[in-house]
């Protein structure tokens, strides 16, 4: 995200959940000056990750839900969270 590599970001997403995973979620739509992973935790057979992205308009907190497809972790859920979480 920081480097603007949208293809790499999309490769981490579950194709079956696109584009609905982004509905109603504020995501960085342009320049990102930094990104910080603030938490990763297991949730049964899934994982939850939280990150904060710094943009010119301010911080955006994102919480993502992940599953393992047998070869790699794929994100299939996305929601906003407080940047300080």
Question: What does this molecule look like?
Answer:
By secondary structure, the protein is mainly beta. 7% of the residues lie in helices and 47% in strands. It is built from one helix and four strands, in the order αββββ. The chain has one helix at 6-11; strands at 34-43, 46-55, 58-68, 73-81. Strands 1-2-3-4 form a four-stranded antiparallel beta sheet, with no helix packed on it. Strand 2 and strand 3 (58-68) form a beta hairpin. The protein is globular, with a radius of gyration of 13 Å. The chain starts with 5 loop residues before the first helix and ends with a strand. The relative contact order is 0.23. The model has no long low-confidence stretch (mean pLDDT 90).
Give a brief rundown of this model:
With 85 residues, the protein is mainly β.
């Amino acid at each position: 995200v920081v480097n603007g590599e949208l293809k790499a970001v999309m490769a981490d997403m579950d194709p079956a959940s696109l584009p609905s995973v982004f509905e109603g979620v504020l995501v960085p739509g342009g320049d990102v000056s930094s990104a910080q992973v603030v938490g990763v935790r297991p949730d049964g057979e899934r994982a939850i990750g939280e990150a904060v992205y710094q943009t010119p308009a301010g911080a955006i907190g994102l919480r993502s839900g992940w599953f393992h497809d047998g070869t790699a972790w794929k994100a299939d859920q996305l929601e906003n969270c407080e940047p300080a979480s």
